[in-house]
Structure to design on (335 residues):
């Protein structure tokens, strides 16, 4: 679609005609003495008098080109543009961070798959979380694993294939044998610090209690709540175990409640799948669409046309004048 950025400048088109019509032509008068015998005086002095006045004449081309060039210049000032069809870009409005416990206890073979076979906890987590990531095409997803300390595995990205590849490569104990739950929330807060998303969600999965953090989990949850981060917690494993293998249900419930999230407990792969299906349902895709129309400037076309006309006219007049002088010169030579 063609448009003018400043169409009101077209009111300048009749300005030259108004000036010609309203203003009187320029005239200049000077005192002079009229001699009836001026030609005799000039011959006696040996001089050849020149014309006393030069009246500029306009030709047909000037009368056509002057208005045309003015119209082209005014059109260029009005900034003609070509506006392309709208271009839309969909951006994720949510940043979703997964924090997965990879302490040594995640190798415990006490989870049952849909066939009833016992499998390691980490294997069930891999399958369920991979499927969850596959369904979250509209979110930027990041990944943290934690054991003795938390480690960022993938920054927030729409490259979900990389996230899934890192999840598939998870090995129990790769982050250390203990559990640093509070520090993992602290690292998540730091990663969310550079996020401009309108919604920030952290999902924490652990099978033990915090034994390695320098920041208490409840303190980390308070900071997350102040920064607008919602935390959903998922517990797996045995809540009746002793030591680090015992799931700290109370702490996980408090973290979720403090930040406005939800707490879940999964005992087998089926329950874990249901938990992540619920998380997928309560965090629906939330995207914002940016739309703009690319604009191509066209002012240089009328401006270039005006300059080309002026150049062509000047060149034509130069050639005509040169030809006339040559003919006068040739006539003088023959005489």
């Amino acid at each position: 679609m063609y448009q003018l950025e400043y169409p009101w400048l077209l009111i300048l088109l009749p300005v030259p005609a108004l000036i010609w019509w309203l203003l009187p032509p320029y005239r200049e008068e000077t005192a002079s003495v009229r001699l009836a015998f001026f030609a005799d005086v000039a011959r006696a002095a040996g001089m050849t008098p020149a014309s006393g006045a030069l009246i500029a004449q306009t030709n047909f081309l000037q009368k056509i080109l002057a208005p045309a060039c003015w119209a082209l210049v005014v059109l260029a000032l009005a900034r003609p543009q070509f506006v392309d069809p709208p271009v839309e870009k969909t951006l994720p409005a949510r940043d979703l961070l997964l924090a997965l416990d990879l302490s040594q206890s995640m190798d415990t073979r006490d989870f049952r798959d849909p066939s009833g076979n016992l499998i390691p906890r980490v294997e069930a987590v891999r399958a369920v979380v991979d499927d969850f990531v596959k369904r979250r095409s509209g979110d930027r997803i990041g990944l943290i694993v934690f054991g003795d300390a938390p480690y960022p595995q993938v920054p927030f990205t729409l490259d979900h294939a990389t996230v899934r590849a890192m999840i598939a490569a998870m090995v129990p104990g790769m982050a250390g044998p203990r559990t640093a739950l509070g520090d993992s929330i602290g690292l998540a807060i730091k990663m969310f610090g550079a996020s401009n998303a309108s919604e920030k969600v952290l999902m924490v999965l652990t099978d033990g209690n915090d034994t390695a953090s320098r920041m208490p989990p409840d303190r980390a949850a308070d900071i997350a709540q102040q920064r607008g981060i919602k935390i959903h917690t998922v517990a797996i494993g045995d809540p009746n175990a002793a030591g680090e293998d015992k799931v700290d249900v109370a702490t996980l419930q408090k973290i979720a409640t403090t930040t406005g999230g939800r707490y879940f407990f999964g005992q087998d792969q089926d329950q874990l799948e249901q938990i992540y299906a619920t998380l997928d349902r309560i965090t629906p895709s939330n995207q914002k669409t940016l739309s703009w129309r690319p604009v191509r400037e066209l002012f240089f076309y009328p401006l270039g046309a005006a300059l080309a006309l002026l150049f062509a006219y000047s060149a034509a007049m130069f050639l005509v004048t040169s030809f006339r002088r040559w003919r006068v010169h040739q006539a003088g030579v023959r005489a």
In short: The first strand starts at residue 2 and ends at 4. The chain has a mean pLDDT of 85.
